[in-house]
Amino acid sequence: MSVNRFGEETRSAPGAGAFRSIGGWVEQPVDLQPTLEGDISADVIVIGAGFAGLSTALELRSLGADVVVLEREFAGFGASGRNAGYLAGSMGVEFEFFLKRVGLEQARKIVAFYDEGVAYVERRLRELAIDCDYNPSGIIRAAVHPSQAHKLRKGMELGLELGSVTRYLDEGEMRARGIPPAFLFGCTQHGGTLDPGKYVMGLRRAALRAGVRLYEKTALLSCSEGATATCWTERGAARAPFVVFATNAYTPQLGLLRDKVVPLRVSAIETEPLSAAQLESLGWPGREGIVTPHWTMESHRLTARDTLLITTKQLGYAYGSRTPNEPDEAAYQALAQALNDRFPTLSGLSVRACWSGYISLAYDALPVVGETGPRRNILYTAGCSGHGVGTQSLVGHLLAERIGGIEHPLLAALRHKTPTTLPEPLQWCAIKAALGGANGLDRHLNRKVRDAAHD
Ligand SMILES: Cc1cc2nc3c(=O)[nH]c(=O)nc-3n(C[C@H](O)[C@H](O)[C@H](O)COP(=O)(O)OP(=O)(O)OC[C@H]3O[C@@H](n4cnc5c(N)ncnc54)[C@H](O)[C@@H]3O)c2cc1C
To answer: Is residue 384 lining ligand 1, measured as CB closer than 6 Å?
Structure first.
């Protein structure tokens, strides 16, 4: 233990050896698909092979389309292979960011979109026979201090008004469920937790099986519009009447949505597996995924490999919307502190892996899904922020139908005017100030929790 500059007792930061540049769930596939060489054509070209790109490709294949996917690294390299694995519906979505902007009626439809994301993934796991350790335990948004009651209740009320399904859990019910005692009271939402690496690799396998032509280690360099769009790569070109950008947080670097979405770095730490005695002492038999109502949430879950995974807590932004694939020691330190604070009985448990990845966020926190170009044949999906396990999977279905000529009502519900982002350096200043303010408020609350524990 040591004391940091805020006077907090901390675990030592996870060692440099714990950093994993591709996240903690996936490895580069042994059957890496070829790099694109030469000229090819297809009905649709999808850029990016995460949940969004692979879902779109699979749905298009089932409509009979010839689909090419271009992936800069390997399928699952982005946020889809690095996330916390919460398959979560609408509760916990930042309703207040968009309610006034879109009005009650559209907000209800957007909430239905988030909830449908859960049902969609559950159905696809069955249909595609993907085993990814899905535990449909539900997710609990749980307070760690009594002063979070107001925020939690307000979120619940707004959620219920918009059609979310949720229920309050008082302290008695939390203890009866065996939820660790740091989490005082909360509210439920449907969904559960899964292994995102197994999920995305399951989608990859299904896509290959279905005849999707996947090119890995193939970065899109530029795309020219027209009735037939051309996607240029280092050693080849792919042409098609439709292109789908499923590059999420990396999209602004490609010259698209630069003024609509902001990449934010999200970090995670994973402990060594808990011993049988540690698991026993923890209780938590349902292994519900837990998120907190901090200004920047903490999320805590047990994995199927009996490790504890702690994510978020501290977000990062790199000037100019860059996405460097590098460690964020300050975030890992903050997450280690959260591990210490919420699970004091596990103080000897070491961190075996830490990693970071990028989500994309619009200023109104809503998905950014639509089309562009003179022919409206360049489609995109981004901005599902921290809810992409469900939503970015479902978007694949909506985009495939749109290409097939059908506007799904949920796609129609997502259409709205996304606010324009600030130019640099204003954006950097504004985001740093907002994230710093949120961290300050959360630190103050965490100090109160620690003080109460020592009284
Ligand atoms: C640490 C962390 C925790 C999270 N936890 C959760 C959670 O618990 N629940 C939840 O719902 N969401 C969570 N999220 C968010 C969720 O992971 C994302 O919203 C989702 O994975 C986005 O999927 P995607 O397919 O749109 O993008 P990505 O998975 O990022 O895929 C984009 C792909 O595009 C590729 N690419 C980029 N540039 C190019 C190029 N030039 N040419 C070709 N390919 C390119 C990338 O390599 C990448 O594979 C978390 C995210 C992070 C980082």
So the answer is: yes
- What are the tokens at 371? 């089309």
Mutate to test the pocket of ligand 1, among 19, 26, 80, 141 (most ligand atoms within 8 A of CB): 80
Reported pTM: 0.96
Residue 121 · residue 390 · CB < 8 Å:
yes
Neighbouring CB atoms inside 10 A of 226's CB total 12
386 lines ligand 1 (CB under 6 A): yes
Q: Please give the distance, rounded to the nearest whole angstrom, from the Cα atom of residue 244 to the centre of ligand 1.
A: 15
Give the C-alpha distances (Å, rounded to integers) separating 186 from 144, 214, 349: 9, 43, 26
Q: What is the pLDDT of residue 11?
A: 54
Domains belonging to the chain, first-starting first, are 2-454 (3.50.50.60)
310 close to ligand 1 (CB < 6 Angstrom): no
The finding on whether 363 has its CB within 6 A of some atom of ligand 1 is no
pLDDT exceeds 50 at position 112: yes
CA-based torsion, 286, 265, 261, 420: positive or negative: positive
Tell me the percentage of the chain whose pLDDT exceeds 90. Answer: 91
Q: What is the pLDDT of residue 389?
A: 97
Tell whether the model's pLDDT for residue 3 goes beyond 50: no
Instruction: Specify whether the CB–CB gap between 344 and 36 falls below 8 A.
Output: no
Among 198, 140, 223, which residue's Cα sits nearest to residue 174? 140
Please choose from 59, 315, 389 the residue to mutate so as to test ligand 1's pocket, defined by most ligand atoms within 8 A of CB.
389
Q: pLDDT (tens digit, 9 = 90+) per residue, 218-233? A: 999 999 999 999 999 9
The Cα 236–Cα 181 span in angstroms is 57
Is the CB of 307 inside a 6 Å radius of any atom of ligand 1? no
Whether cis (ω within 30° of 0) applies to the bond prior to 425 is: yes
Cβ–Cβ < 8 Å for 413, 113: yes
Residue 60 has pLDDT above 90, yes or no: yes
Cα atoms found within 13 Å of the Cα of residue 128, Cβ hemisphere only: 27
121 close to ligand 1 (CB < 6 Angstrom)? no
| Cα gap 266→180, rounded to integer Å | 24
Task: Check: CB of residue 268 under 8 Å from CB of residue 310.
Answer: yes
Q: What is the pLDDT of residues 272-316, one digit of tens each?
A: 999 999 999 999 999 999 999 999 999 999 999 999 999 988 999
- Quote the ligand 1 centre to 248 CA distance (angstroms): 6
Best residue among 22, 71, 194, 398 to mutate for probing ligand 1, ranked by most atoms within 8 Å of CB: 71
Ligand 1 center–CA 425 separation, angstroms: 25
Query: What is the Å distance from ligand 1's center to 79 Cα?
Result: 3
